[in-house]
Design brief:
By secondary structure, the chain is mainly α. It is about 55% helix and about 5% strand.
Length: about 675
């Protein structure tokens, strides 16, 4: 018995300090991303710490003969479910009180998945990448990490129990092998399936298992014994803190995440835990200060509540024409307050295991049922996003000209494009690029007009098709959704299952141009997205023009439209209608933060004209500026945009004259 007690894990205050480091980083990143661009990696710190604690608890209970699967899950239910249910119910209530009609339904739908520990699947399936507009504006996006942990808890205790019976002397080896296997899968997936790799358990489990490896190692080391090597543990701990901090500051999402970059927060956390559990170091004392311990104890509750309040604060700030940052910071502060209240009034009272536990479990069951019923009721409400019909329904027919694998925008941005009409897309269009794209042979011969680009090319495609139809000119659309670039630099995306297939697409476009020698090639894209870190847009453009200009009578570079700075947790129609409900007219919407980059791309294209005489720059952006410098996104009841950066069909009509002139001039120049 004496030996068993020696190896029991008593409360360790420094571990709460580690939680504090993680939640402060996440809170800073969500409230003010520019202040700590890698703060989201605090979630990885939580993963390692969770794996360490769960493994320690389960292995100790198994060794002492008191492990119970039933008891394990009851503890998890008491620990997690009350506050999760409270967050879902509270968020729905806030959305019903303060947000426009229609917005609570999307939140309730996500809330139902959250209650059943499937939020990570919901975000992956319906919101897209973590840094996309849809995921960044959904109030429950952050619960994806809870889904990962809760799914891990489903299989892990049984797995450990099996290991202790079949291979008790090799637990550490098995956990290490699975950690390395999971890490390898994560490295592969980061490059091939980035969204799934970010959100799903198989490619994240190695982070939790890494904590398990550490726990299995420390079971053989008496904790908090200096054994004459305090300086070594001290150095290891501070090195770990430095590595974690480097992740917070220097992680580059453009390089792919998790991937190799996830080693910074995970290995750093491993070193910190090893240090504070092996020796009473100065770092352990710093992490045990009242502020750090108190923040760590509140971390789960703050994590749950901060993000919905940040989204709400941001939305209300924009409604009242205040800076988004002010709304985010105010929401973060309210998130901490709500988190403290929920911790005090919900989490702590319901997680105790003494007398009255059965009553507390019954209360949790009732709360869960109420939350689920609220989600079902609100999600099923059929409330229009523009109930007073202040604006006409915008339409987007661009997907009828998608030469890739057409899919409705809602599947990737469920909130942004609510209330937009998308026509049915025939499945026969899939991979049309293999056979020359989506062709309309109005002139009887091969295509004289060819369109290259991404979804920004699709937004002009119906207009170009109409012009060519009227003039009797054959046209081919070799544009594709999902960020497929106009340049010959296509990478794997929803259209192309591998890098080789993406390369095949680029080669096919080159081959069609060599075969047709069209009169005009339109290159249309959201150019600022091609100007990321360590990317030379001028060199990219020059390379494209050197290949394309000799194959066409004229190459037309279409300037991208200005982006809108509004609350993207709502659709544009929903946001404008909500603002108009206060009695004012169309709200003023500022240009977003990419304007300077967008303008520099246009300037580089205009500067290239002397070197490429058959290059023209079409300034499709100019009609969409108001005199005061804001975006001209609507007129009367007509919306010219469907979201923060795509034109509606009505919007594309605003530049019909420019496109007609470009096509006519190119045809005349070739004769």
């Amino acid at each position: 018995m004496e030996r068993r007690e020696q190896h029991r894990l008593p409360y360790q205050a420094p571990l709460d300090g580690i939680r504090a480091v993680a939640i402060l980083a996440v809170l800073t990143f969500h409230a003010w991303p520019a202040a700590l661009k890698g703060g989201f990696t605090g979630v990885d710190v939580f993963f390692v710490l969770s794996g360490f604690l769960i493994t320690t608890i389960v292995l100790n209970d198994i060794r002492d003969g008191r492990f119970s699967i039933r008891e394990f899950y009851l503890r998890r239910i008491q620990r997690l479910l009350p506050n999760i249910a409270a967050t879902v119910i509270g968020s729905i209530a806030l959305w019903l009180l303060f947000m426009p009609p229609g917005a609570p339904a999307l939140l309730a739908r996500h809330g139902l998945w959250t209650l059943f520990s499937l939020s990570n699947f919901y975000v992956w399936l319906y919101l897209g990448g973590y840094w996309g507009a849809a995921a960044e504006s959904a109030p429950l996006t952050h619960t994806w990490s809870l889904g990962v942990e809760e799914q891990f808890y489903l299989f892990y205790p049984g797995f450990l129990l099996l290991l202790t019976r079949l291979s008790p002397g090799r637990i550490k080896s098995w956990l290490l092998a699975m950690t390395l296997l999971g890490f390898g899968l994560s490295l592969y997936g980061t490059q091939t399936h980035p969204a799934a790799t970010f959100y799903l358990l198989p490619t994240r489990v190695w982070e939790l298992l890494l904590g398990g490896v550490l726990a299995s190692f420390l079971r053989q080391v008496p904790p908090l014994q200096s054994n004459g090597r305090t300086w070594a543990w001290e150095a290891a701990g501070w090195a770990g803190i430095c590595v974690i901090a480097c992740g917070f500051v220097f992680v580059d999402v453009e390089a792919g995440y998790p991937g190799l970059q996830a080693l910074a927060p995970t290995l750093g956390t491993t070193l910190v835990i090893l240090s504070v559990m092996s020796s009473p170091t100065r770092l352990a004392r710093v992490l045990s200060t009242p502020f750090m311990v108190g923040t760590g104890r509140l971390s789960f509750s703050i994590y749950l509540w901060h993000w919905p309040l940040i989204i709400l604060g941001r939305s209300l700030a924009q409604f009242h024409e205040m800076p988004k940052l002010a709304g985010s910071l105010g929401g973060a502060f309210c998130g901490v307050v709500f988190g403290w209240v929920a911790y005090t009034c919900v989490e702590q009272p319901l997680r105790r295991r003494g007398p009255g536990r059965r009553r507390r479990l019954a209360t949790i069951a009732v709360g869960f049922s109420v939350a689920a019923l609220c989600c079902l009721a609100v999600a099923s409400r059929r409330v229009g996003i523009d109930p007073d019909h202040r604006l006409d329904t915008p339409a987007f027919y661009g997907e009828l000209f998608d030469a890739g694998r057409p899919a409705k925008f809602e599947s990737a941005a469920i909130a942004l494009n609510t209330g937009v009409y998308f026509p049915p897309v025939p499945p026969s269009l899939n991979d049309a690029w293999r056979t020359g794209g989506v062709q309309r042979l109005y002139g009887g011969g091969p295509p004289r007009v060819v369109v290259f680009g991404s979804s920004h090319a699709l937004m002009y495609s119906r207009l170009i098709d109409s012009i060519c139809h009227k003039a009797g000119i054959s046209v081919a659309f070799l544009a594709a959704n999902w960020g497929t670039p106009a340049f010959y630099e296509t990478t794997q995306n929803a259209n192309f299952s591998s890098e080789s297939e993406a390369h095949e697409f680029d080669e096919a476009r080159r081959e069609w141009l060599r075969k047709w020698h069209p009169d005009v090639v339109f290159a249309i894209d959201r150019w600022e997205l091609l100007c990321g870190k360590n990317r030379d847009f001028g060199a990219q453009l020059t390379s494209f023009l050197r290949e394309t200009c000799p194959l066409a009578g004229r190459v037309v570079f279409v300037a991208g439209t200005p982006g809108l700075n509004f609350d993207t947790s709502l659709s544009l129609r929903q946001f404008a209608s909500w603002r108009m409900s206060s009695g004012a007219g169309l709200p003023r919407i500022e240009i977003n933060g990419t304007e300077s980059v967008r303008k520099s791309c246009v300037a580089l294209a205009e500067a290239a004209v002397p070197s490429f005489p058959n290059l023209r720059v079409l300034r499709a952006d100019l009609p969409f500026y108001e005199k005061d410098g804001s975006v001209r996104y609507a007129e009367g009841r007509t919306l010219f945009f469907i979201d923060d950066n795509h034109l509606s069909d009505a919007g594309s009509e605003e530049v019909r004259g420019q496109f007609e002139s470009a096509i006519v001039e190119a045809m005349h120049a070739r004769r």
